[in-house]
Design goal:
By secondary structure, the protein is mainly α. The protein has four helices and no strands. The chain is globular, with a radius of gyration of 14 Å. 0% of the residues are buried.
């Protein structure tokens, strides 16, 4: 089962508040082992997640969409570190 199939069958069917709670759990797990102060980052990402959930129905992502996001995140990370 792909992550997209898992999302469609298990996560997308959850009520919005449950999806937001799941997103927060994932975010907490992803940032729990970092050594930087993530409090503001967590709040910011939580707001973005909620805005995304509240923005309307989901649209399918393509591989190109994922690659663009990866490139954008990599560029932003490099500019902040460099």
């Amino acid at each position: 089962m792909t992550i997209y199939e898992l999302y469609d069958s298990a996560i997308k069917t959850l009520p919005v508040d449950e999806r937001l709670r799941l997103a927060r759990l994932i975010l907490d797990d992803a940032t729990s082992d970092t050594s930087t102060d993530t409090g503001d980052s967590k709040a910011y990402l939580a707001r973005l997640i909620k805005e995304g959930i509240d923005s309307g129905p989901a649209t399918p992502w393509t591989i190109d969409d994922v690659e663009q996001i990866k490139q954008s995140v990599t560029a932003r990370s490099a500019s902040r570190l460099g």
